[in-house]
Amino acid sequence: MTRRHPRPPSILDWPRAMAYYLYIALATLVLGLWGLPQALRGTEAANRVASLWLDQMLGAARVILGVRIEYRGTPPAGDCIVASKHQSFLDILALARACPRRAFVMKREVLRVPIMGWFARKVGCIPIDRSRGKEAMKRIIAEVEAARARPEGLGQLIIYPEGTRTRPGHRLPYKHGAGTIQRATGLTIQPVAVNCGMFWPKRGIPIRGGTAVVEFLEPIPVGHRSTQVMELLEERIETASARLFAEAGGRAEGA
User: Fold this and answer.
1) Residue 2 lies in a domain
2) Neighbouring C-beta atoms of residue 168, cutoff 10 Å
């Protein structure tokens, strides 16, 4: 039976989380060192190692934490922009596993993390310095175009329009990045709604078992002005995420 609501709080929540993070630290070290020589062969090889790592992360979440992922809709396979609601580390893992050639736009500090940061750059993730404003966006667009010119292409460029994690049932103003990149590159935008934060909170503890949902929504093709694109993107993601929030037992504040 699929548990749509988070499991009730338990005294075992913290020990389970600690066991999970310990296992993942060891798995990351072992797989990372084992995969380094293979990743030197190129992006495709690095992505295969990353997929093995993601399988370990999500498999351990099922076994140790009782957290599962249900995918709805059709994940993209070609070059596109994936614009998703962001609530926790769980939706990062779930999105990355669903996209065969994933590449995140991420804070440049992440690339300094041992092993993980090196692989992130190797699979095509693009660092961003938020303090650089328009210059940072120009660099992202330049890197996207350079990736599209390579034989393997760009893949799925994953962006979080709100710029940070939000608590379930909450929303922040959307940044214009996805619309700007689409206008410059002609890439389709794939919106994604989630309710992962209901099970795996923003701070990562305590984690509650159950089935989180990641839903791929109707793509947004080229043809609209950037402002229209962002309005449409926000409406689709927030409407669907609110529905998933309610499905998992969430209630709007004041309700």
Assistant:
1) no
2) 22
